[in-house]
Amino acid sequence: MLKIGNIELGEFPLLLAPMEDVSDPPFRAVCKDQGADLMYTEFISSEGLIRDAAKSMQKLDIFEYERPIGIQLFGSDINSMREAGKIADDANPDLIDINYGCPVKGVACKGAGAALLQDVPKMIAMTSAIIKIANRPVTVKTRLGWDHNTLNIEEVAERLQDIGVAALSIHGRTRAQLYKGPADWTLIGKVKNNPRITMPIFGNGDIDSPQKAKELKNRYGVDGIMIGRASIGYPWIFRDIKHYLKTGEMPGLPDVHMRVATCRKHLERSLEWKGDITGIHEMRRHYTNYFKGYDHFKEYRMRLVTSYSVDEINSILDEIVERYGQPMETAS
Fold first, then answer.
1. CA end-to-end span of the chain, whole Å?
2. Per the structure, how many domains does the chain have?
3. Which range has the worst mean pLDDT, 111-125, 148-162, 192-206, 313-327?
4. What string of DSSP letters covers 20-71?
5. 6-19: per-residue pLDDT in tens?
6. Beta bridge partners of 170
């Protein structure tokens, strides 16, 4: 049984990666249904939290059905991160996670996210400041290094563990790569198999099938895996991986009834959390993903993304069930 602090996560946990504008409570709800063992909020700006910005404060919303869940913070100023850590701690998550991996220009070029890989002493000081004020485990998500000339993840892992970080998630790319090219798990494996490392190590990057998950698990010996983009529109990835690891067989693809039921739940949670107007608007980015691979779906998509009526959306979903009533072998 793998544990982070007192949090029990099973033998080989599957983690839902924090994804901006994706992994909000409605999305987390459907991933939890399909077997996600540990989830995180979207990453939250420390400056936004200490200034009481509405968008940042809303991201602190967590629900009992989501547990265990971590609140993820990012920032460039140690004092601001410490204060944001106190606010996050008061929201009563199961853990606090620090983002040292975000590669996007608006974050990294302001000294936050993956930028801290260029200043490891500051990363250590920032992490230590949050550990000292937190009443729960503190974990970190990061990358292999800033670029291929600074692949410093082995040093980073040792130094983070030495100050009390409870677990580390590693994305198998550098900041310079962004999300391009294949993820390199070699260094993730070196960190995991370093005899000095005792904290759980979770691998992240390019896990898009149960077969890939099993291959990476066996080859590199990680304690669990973190799944990001492959879960968008397909929360069944968690179910599929668990079934495959247990039985060696692939479960059947979710049919249109399952897809529509999950889509409806996602919509309902979105409406409950954000209200009708915002809930409907923000759900639009998910429809195509839920029905990826369905022939002649464009007509339904156009109607779904232009409707402001919950009743109309549900009526369109009913039509989709009628149209695609048989399991879609080509859907994915």
1. 31
2. 2
3. 313-327
4. TTTSSHHHHHHHHHTT-SBEEPPPEEHHHHHTT-HHHHHTT---GGG-SEEE
5. 999 999 999 999 99
6. 142, 203
Residues 85 and 153 reside in one and the same domain: yes
Q: Within a domain: residue 2?
A: no
Q: Tell me which H or E stretch contains 137.
A: none
Do 264 and 239 lie in one domain? The reply is no
Q: Print the domain residue range for 220.
A: 9-247
Summary mean pLDDT of the chain = 94
Catalytic positions, written as ranges: 102
Dihedral class, residue 178 (left if φ above 0, else alpha if ψ from -120 to 50, else beta): left
**pLDDT score of 276:** 92
CA-wise closest residue to 126 among 135, 117, 191: 117
pLDDT digits (tens, 9 = 90+) for 224-262: 999 999 999 999 999 999 999 999 999 989 999 999 999
182 and 310 fall within a common domain: no
CA-angle at 100, arms to 96 and 106, nearest 5°: 115
- At 75-110, the pLDDT tens digits run 999 999 999 999 999 999 999 999 998 888 889 878
Q: How many CA atoms lie within 13 A of 189 on its CB side?
A: 11
Please report which residue ranges of the chain form alpha helices under DSSP H.
25-33, 46-50, 54-58, 78-90, 105-108, 120-133, 153-162, 186-192, 210-220, 236-247, 256-274, 276-290, 298-304, 310-323
Is 7 in a helix, a strand, or coil? strand
* Measured CA angle at 31 (ends 190, 40), to 5 deg: 55
CATH number at residue 170: 3.20.20.70
User: For the domain that residue 318 is a member of, what is the CATH number?
Assistant: 1.10.1200
Output DSSP code: residue 275. Answer: -
User: Nearest to residue 237, comparing CAs of 3, 27, 59, 24?
Assistant: 27
Residue 330 domain-assigned? no
Whether the bond between 68 and the residue before it is cis, its omega within 30 degrees of 0, is: yes
